[in-house]
Amino acid sequence: MPIINRIADLLPDLVAWRRDLHANPELGFEVHRTAAFVADRLREFGCDRVITGIGKTGVVGVITGKRVNGPEKTIGLRADMDALPIQEATNLPFASTNRGVMHACGHDGHTAMLLGAARYLSDTRNFAGTVVLIFEPAEELGTGAAAMLADGLMENFGIQQVYGMHNLPGMPVGVFGIRQGAAFAGTDIIGFKIEGRGGHHGLPHKSIDPILVGAQLITAIQQILAQNVDPVESAGFSFDSFHSGDGLATIAETAELSGTIRALKQEVRDIVLKRLGEVVAGISQVTGAKIHVTSQIGEIVLVNQPEPTKMAVASAIDIAGEDNVLTTPQVLTGDDFARLAKARPGAYIWCGNGDGAGLHHAAYDFNDDAIPFGTSYWIRLVENTLL
Fold first, then answer.
1. Where in the chain is CATH 3.30.70.360?
2. pTM over 0.70
3. Sign of dihedral through CA atoms 151, 156, 160, 161?
4. Element (H, E) at 210
5. Secondary structure (3-state) at 66
6. What are the tens digits of pLDDT across the range 112-164?
7. What's CA 334's distance to the chain center, in Å?
8. How far apart are CA 263 and CA 332, in angstroms?
9. Architecture of domain 5-184+301-385
10. Structure confidence by residue, pLDDT tens digits, 17-39
11. 85-101 burial, b if ≥16 CB within 10 A, otherwise e?
């Protein structure tokens, strides 16, 4: 079964919602306008319940089917709402109006697609059981799912399975991708503060240059991955910031770096963290600098469970055809949907976004042509799972 006809008819509305959200992006838990927009639409559609303030600014909509077929089942569908602290560089007529903030990951599209499914399912209710629509804040911070879980998301709404979806640039529109088992990496956010000794450029022997120490640290950590992790395993360490000094021929006193370890297995993560501690101690001893390390767990490994994955694949095939539902490779990106999928059996699928800039890029834009496919997938997933 291809794209649902009524969704094609509703497409102008869905595109308008998506572009409105794109023009008004918000960060983290401060998604007040977005959450209000979502809650207003859900109420307009006639959802049985609309609850706000779950996980600070999360929104939940509940729709009960009209069919009766034995014990009722409840599933959750998750869309993320928050944007990124990036200055948009698309020059689109609906580009971000919030300077330094943009939807560079397509959460505007994810929200619009789930709203489209909510509108259709509220009208038809051609399923047995209950669907819980989860609109999550602060996914990019890696804390939104945990906040919603802490507020009783699974228990209070009786969710038995949970599903997520994300767009994927480079995958053609109309194509889906998923893999069973470990699919996305777990992450550790690492911070380094280097205490050197400031001084004059002309007298480097009387100083300890924290920038030089930081450069050694960057190189040494990449050597950990090259020399200590089995080549057939997956792990990565990327630095995202390096700040030190104010110039003017002065060797700085301190430097601060931050980055993220990514791994698909706990034992690989343990190896990297152990060697990281040893490398930091060694560089500190050789250079004379003090290096303070902070660590916090970001995402956990996202695992697609067998039964939900089977349902996701079948529903995607209904929409796109068997040839357009691919088994995708493991990736080192993370998503805090992993915490929802740990709390309840779940599955997370990619939806093709076509050619264009990649995720988290200033020139990225969600492809509106993907909306009918993603929305139809959500609908078919509900009707297939809640028979």
1. 186-297
2. yes
3. negative
4. helix 210-228
5. coil
6. 999 999 999 999 999 999 999 999 999 999 999 999 999 999 999 999 999 99
7. 6
8. 7
9. 3-Layer(aba) Sandwich (3.40)
10. 999 999 999 999 999 999 999 99
11. ebebebeeebbbeeeeb
